[in-house]
Structures are given as structure tokens and as C-alpha cells.
Amino acid sequence: MASLFRRKKQPQTEEERLFAEYRKLEKRTQALSNGIKSWKASQLNLCKGQNKMSSCLKQVSKIGLDPSALTRCVDLITTQRHKMLDDVRLTTQASMQRLHSLFNNMNGATKKRAQAKSEADNLKKKVDKYYHQYPIPIEKYKNAVKLHTEATERHTKAHDNLLNDLRCISKGKYDFFEPCLESLLLAQLTYYRRVWKTLEPAIHEVESTETLSTAANMERLKSLSIVTGPQNNLKARMMSRKSVKAPNPPNTVV
């Protein structure tokens, strides 16, 4: 029954639809910007960890691989990570900052239009006040009409400019975000490709070293003669206890 008396949602005007899209775009852009900042912070923390790893590797003498080679790999990875962060800063983040400046201009234009409307409304009240006076103060009335006309023109111009800007943002948002996100993904793809190229020789060397060491350890294990394990020893003790006869009970005096 409640649905029968529910008011139907009125269709949005162009202005309401454009402002709804604009607010949604502003909110998502802020979320994307915050996400990029968090991602950059995590990347910088990884750089700190890699620098610490590099300093530790310099103190290691025997790890099955040349420590200097590993240190060079870690340093190269850190350098590539910093380069990726610089690329993101110069492309994606710079574009986000320009978009934020556009949002600030749009918010300023919205306030300017609201001020022009408020001024026009106040002058309209003054025109009505002079019109209903008797006798009508002609000079004041004419001056108020003139000021009201100018304020109305300013409000109309601000309103039209604002709507045109909103239409441009609505049409061009995909054209703006596509290169921003593409540059972000390209920077990460380039980084991981360079990291793999840097680490590939070291990975093959580590894998070959691990294979040789594993084979040697297996040969050493085969040469060992293990008599019994912990479970076998426990089983042997249990069997020995069962084989021992219980002592006869002492004679009791009746």
C-alpha cells in the first residue's frame, strides 16, 4: 500500500544531471588521487626495505652466490622503482592536479553564479518595493530597474558559462582519464619488465646453485645409517615391557 502513495521521482533537468555527474566525478577523482598517494607511500617503503636488504647483503660472505651481484641487483631495482615513481608523478599525478584546479575553478564559478542570483533577487525586491509605493519614486525606480537588469544579465551569463563547462567536463571525462590511467599502468609495466630483465640472470644462477646443493645434501643423507627413529624406539620399549613377567604376589598370612 505504501508504494501506491509513493511520489514518483521527477525527471532530472539538464542542470541537475550535469551537477550530479560532476559531483560523482569529483568524488571519484579524489578517491583515485588518494589511492595513488597510498600506492606511492607503499612503494617508498619497499625502497627502504630494499636499501636495508642491500646493506645486509654487503655484510654476507658465503650465501652460495656472489654478494656483490645481488647488491647490484637490489640497487638497480631500487633505481627502477624511483624512476617509476617519477614517471607517475610527471604524468598521472600532474594530470590529477590539473583536474583538481579545474574543480576549484568550477566551484568558484558555482559560487559566482549563486552570488549573481542573490544580487538579482535582492534588486528585484527593491524594484517591487518602489513600484508599489505611491507616488512612485521615479529616479530610484529607474535606477533599481537598471541595476536589476544588469544583475540578471550577469547571472544569465554566469549560468550559461557554468552549464557549458559542465557539458565539456561530462563529454571529455573519458578522454581525460584514459591517458592518465594508461600512463599509470605503462609506468608499472615498464618497471616490472626492467626488474625481470635485471633479476633473470641472478635467478638462473640461484636456481642452478640450489639444484647442486640439493643433490649434494641428498647424497649425504643416503650415506647416513639411521638405526631407528623416535617412533621405532618407543615401539621397542613397549615390546620389551610386555615380555617381562610380572613378579609373584607376596605370601599373605591368614
Order of helices and strands: HHHH
What is the 3D form? rod-shaped
Number of extended strands = 0
What percent of residues adopt helix (DSSP H or I)? Answer: over 70%
- Mean pLDDT, to the nearest integer, reads 75
* Low confidence ranges: 243-254
Largest sheet: none
Structural class: mainly alpha
- The rounded distance between the terminal residues' Cα atoms is 99 Å
Work out the strand percent. Answer: under 5%
- Indicate the radius of gyration in whole angstroms: 40 Å
The number of helices is 4
Descriptive overview:
With 254 residues, the chain is mainly alpha-helical. It is 82% helix and 0% strand. It contains four helices and no strands. It has helices at 14-57, 67-131, 138-223, 230-243. Helix 1 packs parallel to helix 3 (138-223). The chain is rod-shaped. The N and C termini lie far apart (99 Å).
Task: Briefly summarize what is shown.
This protein has about 250 residues and is mostly helical. The chain has helices spanning about 15-55, 65-130, 140-225, 230-245.
Write the layout of secondary structure elements.
Elements: H1 14-57, H2 67-131, H3 138-223, H4 230-243
Helix pairs in contact: 1-2, 1-3, 2-3
